[in-house]
Amino acid sequence: MTGFGKAECENDQRKFIIEIRTLNGKQADVAMKLPNIFKEREIEIRNELLSRLQRGKIEIYVTMDGGADDTTTQFNEIAIRNYYRQMVDIAERNNIPMPADILNAIVRLPEALKSERHQPDEQEWKILYDGIKRAVQQVNHFREQEGVALQEDMSARLQLIETYVTEVEKHEPQRMEHIRNRLRQSLIEYVGENAIDQNRFEQELIYFLDKIDVNEEKVRLRNHCAYFVSTMREGDGVGKKLGFIAQEMGREINTIGSKANNAEMQQIVIRMKDELEKIKELVMNVL
User: Fold this and answer.
1) Which residues pair with 22 in a beta bridge?
2) pLDDT digit string, tens, across residues 219-264
3) Could you give the 3-state DSSP secondary structure of residue 181?
4) What is the per-residue pLDDT across 69-114, written as a single tens digit (0 to 9) for each?
5) Exposed e or buried b for every residue in 34-56, given b needs 16+ CB within 10 A?
6) CB atoms near residue 103 (< 10 Å)
7) 79, 112 Cβ separation under 8 angstroms
8) Which listed site, 221, 229, 242, 244, has its alpha carbon 20 to 30 Å from 177?
9) H/E element, 60
10) Residue-range domains of the chain with CATH
11) What's this model's pTM, rounded to 2 decimal places?
């Protein structure tokens, strides 16, 4: 969702500079800073941004250079005349001399000056609107480039996770043998070697080893990795879906860790978790 776009447009009187910045976010959050003369166009601009940028934190800044100010100040002749007549009347009735700078005092009174806002014509609005569209195109182009980099990064991390799954498999025979010997030694210490029912021991051992077997988790984790890659290739609007897949990957990795009973496998699980957390951080910036 990270992007930046800039466009400039102008007519005979004004020049507009449009800058749009976007950051990742779960919802659409639009912040605008516009010249006062275009405040009434906020809804149209917001709709354009949301329709083409979808979600994230979106900031648009429009600055205006050149031409007349957006507001003009004029004397309110009617109000000034009324003030003057009232002051003359009060001065005459109370025998008060009129000050020489009476006009300077009057223009400071309320409503002696009036401001009129310049209203842009449709042609001026069309120029600005076209500029906003061009800036949005730049943002999306920036996002596409960023997306390619994100896809390459996440793909590399997924390959690492799959490599770690292969490393887990290398430790499984040793793990099983270690668990078997440990259980047998514990049983010998508890009841003595001669008291062990070998057939019953083998049955219980098979049951226990089946409970800590991680083959299903490895298969599901590999499938999730492949599904993640295929989902990335689908195009826009897959960010939330990738987030869900990453959550499922996390469940399988956690289960492998809880069943490991092996220091080397636990270390590999930690490395898998580290790569998955980095993938989740990257997914947060995907639409």
Assistant:
1) 3, 58
2) 999 999 999 999 998 877 788 899 999 999 999 999 999 888 788 8
3) helix
4) 456 677 888 888 888 888 888 888 888 888 778 888 887 788 877 7
5) beebbeebeeebeebbeeebbbb
6) 13
7) yes
8) 221
9) strand 56-65
10) 3-69+122-142 (3.30.230.10), 71-117 (no CATH)
11) 0.66
Render the burial of 75-87: b for 16+ CB within 10 Å, e for the rest.
Answer: ebeebbeebeeeb
- Alpha-carbon separation of residue 77 from 56, 111, 230 (angstroms): 51, 10, 73
- Measured CA to CA, the distance from residue 244 to residue 124 in angstroms comes to 46
- Predicted confidence at residue 79, as pLDDT, reads 84
Q: CA–CA separation, 90 vs 277, rounded Å?
A: 81
Residue whose tokens read 């496998």: 265
Question: At residue 181, what is the residue type?
Answer: N
Percent residues over pLDDT 70 in the chain: 86
Q: Which residue has the higher pLDDT, 77 or 18?
A: 18
